[in-house]
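Quick note —
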Amino acid sequence: MKIRSRAVLCIILVATEGCGAGVKMAQESEHGGVVVYPYKSEQGPVLSSFRKDAVHMMEERCPSGHTIIREGETKGRSRLSGPVQTGGEIIQERRWGIQFQCK
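Predicted structure written out below.
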């Protein structure tokens, strides 16, 4: 029974971890919006693999081109990694936002 409980907990943690990952359109307007993506501190936001996805999302939203208005760190989130019984580890996710306007 203990093994089954651990397996279920692992599946839940993996599933919820994937829900928060990736690029998201945090705000959308007629003429642009704000895309947000996670990044690791040691890698930085510009070298994050998610930045390419963010640029692609802006290009899809603005087929005639876009201008970046501003970008910077935005509100991240904290999550628990590992089994609750052993205390787990709190992981701070950093997120980067790019405000853009369509041409």
